[in-house]
Amino acid sequence: MLSLRAPPRTFSPAPWRRRGRHGRFAAPRCASAAAPAATLETASSPPASLSFPILVNGCTGKMGVSVAEAATKRGLHLVPVSFSSRENLDKTVQIGGTDIEIYGPSAREDVLSSVIDEYPDVVVVDYTAPDSVNSNAELYCNLGVPFVMGTTGGNKQLLYKAVQDSNNYALISPQMGKQVVALLAAMETIAERFPGAYSGYRLEVLESHQAGKLDTSGTAKDMIACFEKLGMSCDMDRIVKIRDPEQQLYMVGVPEEHIGGHAFHLYHMTSPDDSVSLEIQHNVCGRSIYAEGSVDAAVFLYKKVQSMDPKRIYNMIDVLEAGDMR
Ligand SMILES: NC(=O)C1=CN([C@@H]2O[C@H](COP(=O)(O)OP(=O)(O)OC[C@H]3O[C@@H](n4cnc5c(N)ncnc54)[C@H](O)[C@@H]3O)[C@@H](O)[C@H]2O)C=CC1
Ligand SMILES: O=C(O)C1=N[C@H](C(=O)O)C[C@H](O)C1
After folding, report:
1. Which residues on adjacent β-strands are paired with residue 100?
2. How far apart are CA 9 and CA 4, in angstroms?
3. 275 CB contacts (<8 Å, ≥6 apart)?
4. Which of 35, 176, 200, 233 has the smallest number of Cβ neighbours within 10 A?
5. Is 229 a catalytic residue?
6. Given this model, what pLDDT does residue 236 score?
7. pLDDT tens digits for 177-227?
């Protein structure tokens, strides 16, 4: 993996480093702890007009908690069950007044079957870990429970195959933030309309996330697929992953209160003769944009299941296209 101490030849100095923390193009400011984006976003959200049971898998983790909280605030019925990769955890997590019981891997099939018996119209939202994506998806597909897969990583082909083969309903997206998804959709449109328009351009990609993030940004990978259609090449191994809090603070410009939860992305393109450069950034502080988007995704999928829509696999662009962009 590339480190910032040993940047690739085309990547010196790092675009974020070049600007410095307070430079003209420093990363845009995020809401401070005193005025968290989450408060603003959830406060303006109207309650859901419909309610249904939602099981959030991964309530021991940060996204799991955020989604469960957002679902409760929207008036959905939070199923008091979640799972863990560890046995004998014997743990209960309290979210919005609900005690969520956490079960280990050996109990998950029986427990999830009982949940489906009790709540036949339940939708699962998964925020676990990259190495659990495929086994969790197989479980949901075997039991025929519709799911939103927010967890990144895993084997994408196998994930889609599992859903296709089982004819289950699923919404899969490595990016649930609708405003970021809209940017991705725009990139896909540009790539389709102008294939090869940036042939020969060099692409440098940097992404910074909280230190606990295990995999490379799934969003960056989807953006890179668009850049490749436009004629640029970027080896996934050359994505610069920044996980060091010091670098995030002083080089990337992440506000200190968001070191533990942020997603900053920078794509820098340069023409073969260095005469042209272009840049795209999307910088998110906190997790509310994903939590709100995940609840929108669950509501969207629930409606598709209830209407027995023949299409089974969706993504967040489908949610935007359905007109749910706020
Ligand atoms: N699609 C999107 O918009 C977003 C996706 N993510 C992705 O969500 C995932 C989780 O992110 P965080 O909550 O920040 O991580 P985290 O590490 O805080 O939480 C993950 C939790 O899942 C648990 N876990 C692992 N394997 C499990 C299994 N098989 N069953 C049940 N629980 C299991 C872990 O013990 C941990 O508590 C990552 O893959 C991340 O990339 C994160 C933010 C937004
Ligand atoms: O792990 C995260 O935090 C995030 N993961 C997603 C990704 O890998 O693209 C979305 C966002 O970057 C936050």
Report:
1. 93
2. 12
3. none
4. 35
5. no
6. 77
7. 999 999 999 999 999 999 999 999 999 999 999 999 999 999 999 999 999
In the chain, the DSSP E strands lie at 53-57, 77-78, 81-83, 91-95, 98-103, 123-126, 147-149, 170-172, 202-209, 240-242, 262-270, 277-285, 313-314
Q: What is the pTM of this model?
A: 0.89
- If you measure from the C-alpha of residue 257 to the centroid of ligand 1, how many angstroms do you get, rounded to a whole number? 20
Q: In this predicted structure, what is the pLDDT of residue 235? A: 77
Q: What is the spatial distance between Cα 198 and Cα 189, in angstroms, rounded to a whole number? A: 14
Count the residues in the chain: 326
Active site residue 213: yes
Residue 56 gets the label, from left (phi > 0), alpha (psi -120 to 50) or beta, of beta
Residue whose CA is at the smallest distance from ligand 1 atom 30? 84
Average pLDDT over residues 239-265: 97
Domains of the chain: 15-35+177-287 (3.30.360.10), 38-174+289-321 (3.40.50.720)
Predicted ipTM of the assembly: 0.99
Q: Summarize the confidence of residues 86-114 as an average pLDDT.
A: 93
From the CA of 284, which ligand is nearest? 2
Which residue of the set 161, 178, 209, 282 is catalytic? Answer: 209
For residue 272, report the distance from its CA to the centre of ligand 2, in Å. Answer: 31
* Cα(56)–Cα(58) distance, integer angstroms: 6
Counting ligand 1 atoms within 8 A of each CB, the residue from 66, 81, 85 with the most, and so the one to mutate, is: 85
Ligand 2 centroid distance, CA of 133 (Å):
14
